[in-house]
What we know:
about 425 residues, alpha/beta, Coagulation Factor XIII, Chain A, domain 1, 9 helices, globular
Amino acid sequence: MMDNREVAIQLSGVKKRYKLGQIGGGTLQGDLQSWWARVRGKEDPNTKIGTDQRLMGQTFMALNGIDLTVYKGEALGIIGGNGAGKSTMLKLLSRVTAPTEGEIDIYGRIASMLEVGTGFNGEMTGRENVYMNGAILGMTKAEIDAKMEDIIEFSEVREFIDTPVKRYSSGMYVKLAFSVAAHLDSEIMIMDEVLAVGDMAFQKKCLNKMRDAAQKEGRTVLYVSHNMNTIRQLCDRCIVLDKGKIVFSGDVESAIDIYMQNKMIDAQVEYDLRETTVRPSYVKDVARIEYLKLLDKRMPVYEVNEPIRIYLRISTKKAFADLKLRLQLGYGDDSPVGTVPMLSLGRMAPEDETDFTITFKPSGLTVGKYRMSIVLFEADEFNNSHDLDLLLPAFRFEIQGTDELIWNHRAWGHIKLLDASVYRG
């Protein structure tokens, strides 16, 4: 039984409150109105519609009442949207900051990797930083020496191990930092999604190492990621955070379903991107997608094999002999499905706006929720892509329908392969 396992981490009623930088609401009358509303427990009359309800006066509740038990040898995934409180929770567990309310009990030494460079001194060499991190964990020099070769070998930065880490690239930082956290003597490993900086081969090696740490070495692993595939590969339990609270704790697939349902609420079919100030062009003032609409639809829902028609308006600031466009299709959990690598938009004039209608035929796509990203680019004489503007994602849609089988996306992928036949005899 789970309850009979040894506890590694216990959080009880944990809250984390941050003070905002704003001093006043703009007027004395407004400040008095807000104060009187808080005294009576009423909604602030000066709060704008749509403002996050975790804003309480001049404070923000990053975590708002967390109760969680993590057991020894468990690999726990932590997922949620941006601002859900994931990184705040890891910082509390790593003792980077303290909770405003509640208690945190930790049974064991923690090795954490929260941000690139955290825990490293830039003036010290890689080797010196290994010794420093080991000393922080209470290890002796002899114990660190016994681990040093394994750390250097795993990190793939052997030729730079005696170079000051301030000269490392972000990828080298990540490799050494993870290797240190994974090999030094700690009972608990805490990993934020910094692995995204490293290359794919190293990411896979890190996941295998974390899996071995939990399953073979009995260490506790807490892992935050937006990549649902890595959560599936590593974790045996998962929690979903939303607005500073745990909204689900249980098996990984159920957690991912809940997370994706929250993420896929967007039911828009029309986007005026000129109003989206938070989306700067990838290369400023060259080419930009100004407007997007899913044609023939009031909701972004399609039947199996139904064509998807997309209307785009593109503005250009310079002339293009042949501007190109790429469609990148992903499943709702961010796993890639496929790509239309190159659609030619033809010659484009400077200071111009041009309308296009694109028809995408999702042949073989199974029932489920998807996301489409759109990239404007130009290709050089060697067919290298130079991206100009990106919508990641451009829109989300759902494919509905009936099937003779309940589709297992995790095991079978997202495309039904139909070009096969069988002959008896």
